Amino acid sequence: MRASGYIRIDETPVQVLKSDANGTQQWVRVAGPPGQRLILFEHDPSQSAQVAARLLEGARGYVQSDGCEA
């Protein structure tokens, strides 16, 4: 994914069942050529820029996001 040159990333609040937390962020990353898309989901209690930086660490090229300011 990191070598694809173009990654789309977004986070969406979701309720986590059987958890003490009120919710979590579901981070979604999409990359790859048409017909060979790679979609990764990861849960984190935060939607901070540090989470996005960790998920995109080592990536080169373009990142597309909704531009949410948290």
TrEMBL record:
**Domain spans labelled Transposase IS66 central:** 2-67
Spell out the protein name for this chain: Transposase
